[in-house]
């Protein structure tokens, strides 16, 4: 029962998020607002107990959920082959730049070893 | 033979086909990935996409026909994004202490990814609507589509670029972070996960989640931050030009 309750609760938070996002005309999509709502609701321990198994299951199979969108790449093979090399170069380089800059900035801002012992 | 063709035509047009094919191919891809000890080339998303797209093209099945079944899996992305709140809640004390740093790194990384994509694409002579579809490629696909529509891109292209970006990140993260000599302790994994989630959103986060729990949690947080920052800032920035 618990995982089912958890899934129902996650959908409830998503619905709340969609409603808020729609009516307040937020630029942020419903599920992300729902994630914030979930963070607020997790203060209550019954919510924690229900959400834990459902969230654990969904997140451990997160990769699967991206497959349908990924297969959509096949619908744009014409454009991909027309600008193929340029697109591959742009996507690969900018992804590496994004990862390297994020990791670099984070490492730069990280306190020294003695300080971050207390954060653990 | 005739009967077999009829059976195939019937089955492949029913939603059951898309759903079954996606699950079955993914389960196999995951088994290959496990056998290969999570080697980058054996990324389950990339393997599944390659096999499924190959099957659809070879059998002449249209993507919407496939999606009629696959949408049931696609739908779960919504509650899964909500569920990303759970690993964050478990690490709330650590997050509270490093909140400022993470937002700064997310802003810097997201800006660098978008600016380098648009800049390099422009230098290589890609058309304007393709450039505007490339800009939000480090944001998770559904949000990238919305942002692209607002700044003059093509939503369907944005989804494709986002998916490719996710796969590139998941494939090359270990190599790139090794090159940068990032540590592999809990702290280093958090850093790696956060960088991967910032540049390669959900597909990166899914990969991080499979490698390490800390990396996964921070990748999920990075994905969420990227969504908020990109959704709010990108339309503003591109309105200036």
Give a description of the structure.
The complex is a heterodimer of chains A (about 120) and B (about 240). Chain A has helices at about 1-25, 30-40, 45-60, 60-65, 65-70, 75-80, 85-110, 115. With about 120 residues, chain A is mostly helical. Chain A is extended, with a radius of gyration of 20 Å. Residues about 115-120 of chain A have low confidence and may be disordered. Chain B is mostly helical. Chain B folds into two domains: about 1-75, no CATH class; about 80-240, no CATH class. Chain B has twelve helices and no strands. Chain B has helices spanning about 1-15, 15-35, 45-60, 65-75, 75-85, 85-90, 90-125, 130-135, 140-150, 155-180, 185-210, 215-240. Chain B is globular and about 65 Å long. Chain B starts with a helix and ends with a helix. Classes of the chains: A mainly alpha (about 120), B mainly alpha (about 240). At the A-B interface, helix 1, helix 2, helix 3, helix 4 and helix 5 of A face helix 2, helix 3, helix 4, helix 5 and helix 6 of B.
What's the gist of this structure?
The complex is a heterodimer of chains A (120) and B (241). Chain A folds into 2 domains: 1-65, no CATH class; 72-120, no CATH class.
Main beta sheet of chain B: strand number and arrangement? none
> How many helical stretches of chain B?
12
> How many domain modules of chain B?
2
Strand content of chain B: under 5%
Structure class of chain A = mainly alpha
Structural class of chain B: mainly alpha
Overall tally of domains of chain A: 2
Q: Which helices and strands appear, and what pairs or packs with what?
A:
The complex is a heterodimer of chains A (120) and B (241).
Chain A: H1 2-23, H2 30-41, H3 45-60, H4 62-65, H5 67-71, H6 77-82, H7 84-109, H8 113-116
Helix pairs in contact in A: 1-2, 1-3
Chain B: H1 2-13, H2 15-35, H3 44-59, H4 63-75, H5 77-83, H6 85-90, H7 92-123, H8 128-134, H9 141-151, H10 155-179, H11 186-211, H12 213-239
Helix pairs in contact in B: 2-3, 2-4, 7-8, 7-11, 7-12, 8-10, 9-10, 9-12, 10-11, 11-12
